[in-house]
TrEMBL record, chains A, B:
Keywords: ATP-binding, Ligase, Nucleotide-binding, Purine biosynthesis. This is N5-carboxyaminoimidazole ribonucleotide synthase. The keyword Electron transport does not apply. HAMAP family: PurK. One of its GO terms (cellular component) is cytosol. Catalyzes the ATP-dependent conversion of 5-aminoimidazole ribonucleotide (AIR) and HCO(3)(-) to N5-carboxyaminoimidazole ribonucleotide (N5-CAIR). Catalyzes the ATP-dependent conversion of 5-aminoimidazole ribonucleotide (AIR) and HCO(3)- to N5-carboxyaminoimidazole ribonucleotide (N5-CAIR). GO terms for molecular function: 5-(carboxyamino)imidazole ribonucleotide synthase activity; ATP binding; metal ion binding; phosphoribosylaminoimidazole carboxylase activity. It catalyses: 5-amino-1-(5-phospho-beta-D-ribosyl)imidazole + hydrogencarbonate + ATP = 5-carboxyamino-1-(5-phospho-D-ribosyl)imidazole + ADP + phosphate + 2 H(+).
């Protein structure tokens, strides 16, 4: 027997993104090694090689990285200096620390996108509530006072957490974000028509693929539904959004999946809202709706393998998130959901149900958008317990 | 928190069928527990909960079954009496021992299918080489002598092993099968036009789904290519084959996936060749070519969940097996294969390469059969090393 070179992909973080990345890696015959906070984490339940440990500890990371051919991530929380240390040890880290910083720190991201001339909401770092009022005044036009203003802590936010809307100078939200002791970014509150996501995958070689641009519908700051492709999207806007995402991936040196969350304004302009450098909720539809899923392409990218076809397999695919409701056990709901819709694709994460927590999603594809949306919404609602027939 | 009822599926056997069943079970949020001969087996590399032990030992099986909600199988080798013992312990075994016996013992299978009036090659158990000659004479018509005759050991054969073709009374193959010390079945050698497979999945409730009938092309007794659906198959023959498989599943009380391997004769008759009660090589195309894969439906069936839609997602899907060749390392071949065909679906099993061993398969789907076949054959040949451009 000669040498066998099937690589070991090490993934930091045991959440559902790692769970689904492992699932997508199984057909490739690669080895998957997980660094997880606990043995009960979503991905740790189903992966073969699991190291339980704290990703904030460099020694733990270094021991985990031994024997890995590449390190990638379920989340963006690994300290930059630790990633640089792993790189200095000779371990490829993908995406690398210089790219990942833009997904870790919204201030750095905004500054860099401004340099690149990428369309974005007006924004700058602010130092205190008075500075928030000054930021509002800078944006005041005509009779308007520049409010509302959106404040975000530059680190640590997700799913609407770490985000405040300030409706006037006296709004207590103007002081709230400064209590966390991290930088605060102010942004104009864009009066957008809808939210889109342009998702791309890029390899170290520089090969890149762009998924169809999708519409993302948020409820209470949490992604509720994703429609692929975005209905009625102007083809020029679609191409512009894809080119924007490809350009950001290139300029920032992203390796792996990059989600570019966008606001579409009433006049068809697209503004960058957020970046994520990992598989992303707005790409879950690809598991059943695209030729190659975001998870499979993320694995291929971090291994510098040629990327797979990102195109749609069906005219419409709708993803609906399953949030925790009042019922701790969703399994009995499978009977109704599967019997009602034999084409339904359920993706559960093995997580304990907590109200509002993302514990799974469903994908439905088909020819008629209204039908596909209804089926996805019904299944997600039934699993959550908000629909009972 | 109330009780959470997501079940534990225990699978006996660590081969690629278990590997791909685990992969298909991840989205359902179920727990998967594996009994594997070694920690290096195909499925053991990727599954979360692995017990290493010998399935021939009842004590091992009993300990494994503790905490499992149902036991199912990667292979048909677990002794019937052990399965009955597990059932007596209150563990659901699916398929159950009475059904599984027909996939374990070709003599039992042939006798039962005869009772049911299922079309089959002429056959009977034979006791020695003289009896083989007698069996041939019983089938002699006109000037023919009744040879060739096919001999099979009733247990233990697979992929052409345990099968002999006897071309005349003096052929040494007439005595060879009797050396194994197990029963020997004689069958007429059917002059078939091609081989088909009718695959169905049945739940304990009695719900069943039938996959499109496929053509299976064997090379040297090993499955080489599967085409879904079988090209040019007469619609009446297709329905007849599906009904036959559904009837066998019902009459034998099969739970889970049942593969019915068929001979199609020149005049459109279908004769049952073999049965397998587990996911089967002739169903691997469903991973990428059907709405619901055989693996997902097998899991749903053994859990008595409603079954998923078995229909095709593309006009044509072709599966080509990847056999071991002279190169022990197939990973470098990914570069060419993935770059040449961004829609190619590779499924590798994590197995050491040995010449002729099934170590993976590829699936390709599309609108034009010739194109799809060429792409699948090219990828499988390139991975094996028989095609080098």
């Amino acid at each position: 027997m000669g040498t066998v070179t099937f690589p070991v992909v090490g993934m930091v973080g045991g959440g559902q993104l790692a769970r689904m990345t492992h699932e997508a890696g199984i057909p490739l015959g690669i080895k998957f090694k997980l660094l997880s906070d606990t043995a009960q984490d979503s991905a740790a339940q189903v992966a073969g090689e699991v190291v339980v440990g704290d990703y904030r500890d460099l020694g733990t990371l270094r021991r985990f990285a031994q024997g890995c051919d590449v390190i990638t991530f379920d989340h963006e929380h690994v300290p930059t200096e630790h990633l640089r240390a792993l790189e200095a040890d000779g371990i490829p880290v993908r995406p690398g620390p210089d790219a990942l910083l833009h997904a870790q720190d919204k201030g750095v991201m905004r500054a860099r996108l401004s340099e690149l001339g990428v369309p974005a909401p007006r924004n700058r770092l602010v130092s205190d509530p008075d500075d928030v009022a000054a930021f509002a005044r800078e944006g005041a036009t005509g009779g308007a006072d520049g409010f509302p203003v959106v404040l975000k802590t530059v680190r640590g936010g997700y799913d609407g957490k770490g985000v405040w809307v300030v409706r006037g100078a006296d709004d207590p939200n103007a002081s709230e974000p400064f209590k966390a002791g991290v930088g605060v970014l102010a942004e104009e509150k864009v009066d957008f028509a809808r939210e889109l996501a342009a998702n791309v995958v890029r390899s170290p070689h520089g090969q890149a693929v762009a998924y169809p641009v999708v519409e993302s519908i948020q409820v209470d700051g949490v992604c509720d539904t994703v429609i692929a492709p975005a209905p009625g999207l102007d083809p020029d806007t679609s191409v512009r959004a894809q080119e924007l995402a490809l350009r950001i991936a290139h300029e920032l040196g992203v390796v792996g999946h990059l989600a570019v969350e966008l606001f579409e304004t009433a006049d068809g302009e697209v503004l960058v809202n957020e970046l994520a450098m990992r598989p992303h909720n707005s790409g879950h539809w690809t598991q059943d709706g695209a030729v190659t899923s975001q998870f499979a392409n993320h694995v291929r990218a971090v291994l510098d393998l040629p990327l797979g076809d990102p195109r749609c397999r069906a005219p419409w695919t709708v993803m609906a998130n399953v949030l925790g409701g009042d019922y701790p056990d969703m399994y009995p709901a499978y009977l109704h959901c599967m019997a009602r819709d034999p084409q339904l694709k359920i993706h559960m994460y093995g997580k304990d149900v907590k109200p509002g927590r993302k514990v799974g999603h469903v994908n439905v594809y088909g020819d008629a958008l209204a039908d596909v949306r209804e089926r996805a919404a019904h299944a997600a609602g039934y699993l959550r317990g908000t629909i009972t027939e």
